[in-house]
Amino acid sequence: MITKRQISLVLVLVAVGCTPQGDPAISSEGLTDSFDRDRLGELWNNTGGPWEIRDGQLHVRGAKNRPLWLRRVLPQDVSIEFDVRSESPEGDIKAEVFGDGVSKAKEESYTATSYVVIFGGWNNSLNVIARMNEHGNDRIVGPKHPVVKGKTYHVRIERQGKTLSVQFGDALSMKMRDPDPLYGRGHDHFAFNNWKSDLWFDNLRIKAVR
Questions:
Q1: Residue 92 within any structural domain of the chain
Q2: Residues 112-138: pLDDT tens digits?
Q3: In this structure, are residues 114 and 192 in contact, taking their beta carbons and an 8 Å threshold?
Q4: For residue 2, is it within any domain?
């Protein structure tokens, strides 16, 4: 029997955009995933995109904003690194950080619960950090640096306090200072995301920053 207390708790979670999935936190040793296996496994939550492991890498093409969420709670201050390449001329590499772990597009329009980091978006013309709405006026637009088809880039995303910084290869860096940072339950997960480009991810490493 569902009690009034349980009903109240569910209503509160819905109201504040939280998710009750109860994922464990990343340990003090950090987390790595080199994708050297056949299947994604229970570490990842596929929200409906064509995510797969192929040739020891994470591959996707045409996810249409249905992210692959990591089933682990991020440290508040964190470093996230991975390698990525696009085999599409439009580039369009995308990741989400500090989201709710379950959100996905239900129609063509999609507003994230996270910071959205995009390299070579909008037909390889823009690099941005966005706070939930990648089309919003408050997004940070970085220097012009088109993604080269077939080139592998090392990405580093780091948050310390109210500042989110991004390094893409050796030539591109961006920073966003958020006076109201996305913290806590509902804003504590990482995801790879994709619209329609052909992307290959590898060598994910996540650790707390102190």
A1: yes
A2: 999 999 999 999 999 999 999 999 999
A3: no
A4: no
- Output b/e per residue, 58-79; b: 16+ Cβ within 10 A: bbbbebbbbbbbbebbbbbebb
Radius of gyration of the chain, Cα coordinates, nearest whole angstrom: 17
The closest of 135, 100, 94, 128 to 114, measured between CA atoms, is 100
pLDDT digits (tens, 9 = 90+) for 58-103: 999 999 999 999 999 999 999 999 999 999 999 999 999 999 999 9
Assess if residue 87 is contained within a domain.
Answer: yes
Helix (H, G, I), strand (E, B) or coil at 6: helix
Which residues span the domain enclosing 59?
24-208
Number of domains in the chain: 1
CATH label of the domain that carries residue 119: 2.60.120.560
